[in-house]
Amino acid sequence: MVDPPLEGKLFQNEKKIQSFHKLFNSKSPIGCDHGRILLWRFLHCVDLLEDSNRTLLTKSLFRLLLFLSFVMYMDNIVEFVTKFRFKTDDSIFRASILHFNCYVISAIVWYALRQKRKNLTSLLKILRKRYTLTLTKPQILVLLFIYSSAIIVLVLFFTSHSLKNEWYIYEIKTNYTIFSIVNCIRILLQIFIYPIFTNLVAFLYCFICQSICDLVTHFTSEIRVCPFEEFTVRRQTDILRKMSGIENALNLTQKVFSVPSFLISVSHFCSCIAILAVEIYLKDDLQLHRQIEWFLIFMNSFCGLLAILWKAGSLPIEAEKLKRTYRIKFRQKLLSENKVGELHSEMDLIDTSNFVLSGCNIIYFYRSSLLALAGTILTYTVLLMSQN
């Protein structure tokens, strides 16, 4: 006989083990909920949702975060002034200015997105009704990689400073505890503002694009498997009504993320050029931990830019597949009823947009522009360091 308390503990442990195994199941709602909570917590913490930061504690923490971010900006400005003294002919100075612009752009991204937080909340509610808004296992891994950047940078910093006997902050001698606390706050804020914050916004943008894309793919499959005999006017009207709802969500996505997506693309582009220039031309002058840190930020920047182009660029492709499938099914229906003269009306029935998203109508997100992007980054990197 097993004691009841011991039996209860064994049962709880067994449930924990089962939950742990379910976490790695791609169809598990537990794993998806964990990833969704990470994303939703981020939106609440930075006050990007309509109902976020309503309590006194959350408002105080948010204002403290803003104050510390302002201090970090001033610290970076002072560092640039004292280190470079505006040597405009110095290639490293130009690369540093490019990278510093990323932090300024991140603040503008937050402000632009906060101005649209009511629309963002409405968009998420619309998608929640039509889509489960759950994260897949690869998406959770990407989210964890974004968050883990801060931990990796912290480990690299303290590993490189572990052999020192004296500790200085702004040329003021101090002890190890104060040195650790101040640098932890500084590094965490710096890495959070860029690239973590911008990549989390980019992740949210890609997640919404993927949700809309999955809905379009689902409707395409519905049309494909539907026999043309059952492709009646009622069925066509139902499909077009659903497509109208998706177009509304897409228009709201463009309204919310038009400015942020443009600014994020610019910041990632500038960061890639600056870091690639430093890594290529000054690799021998950089310590190992600095090389790893710069490479980590470069991967965040380049992958963030790549993800936006890939996910937002998948919408026109899926929209074209939907139109083609609809036209084929519509032709089959008309030909079966000997209504060849009405074939021209198919264009009116599926008169949907191309589902092309853009950043401020300046950058249009297509997958075909990926190779051009890589070539442009390399070209501007060489141009930046040409007058070394």
From TrEMBL:
<feature type="transmembrane region" description="Helical">
    <location>
        <begin position="140"/>
        <end position="158"/>
    </location>
</feature>
<feature type="transmembrane region" description="Helical">
    <location>
        <begin position="364"/>
        <end position="385"/>
    </location>
</feature>
<keyword id="KW-1133">Transmembrane helix</keyword>
<feature type="transmembrane region" description="Helical">
    <location>
        <begin position="262"/>
        <end position="282"/>
    </location>
</feature>
<feature type="transmembrane region" description="Helical">
    <location>
        <begin position="61"/>
        <end position="81"/>
    </location>
</feature>
<keyword id="KW-0472">Membrane</keyword>
<feature type="transmembrane region" description="Helical">
    <location>
        <begin position="93"/>
        <end position="113"/>
    </location>
</feature>
<protein>
    <recommendedName>
        <fullName>Gustatory receptor</fullName>
    </recommendedName>
</protein>
<feature type="transmembrane region" description="Helical">
    <location>
        <begin position="294"/>
        <end position="313"/>
    </location>
</feature>
<keyword id="KW-0812">Transmembrane</keyword>
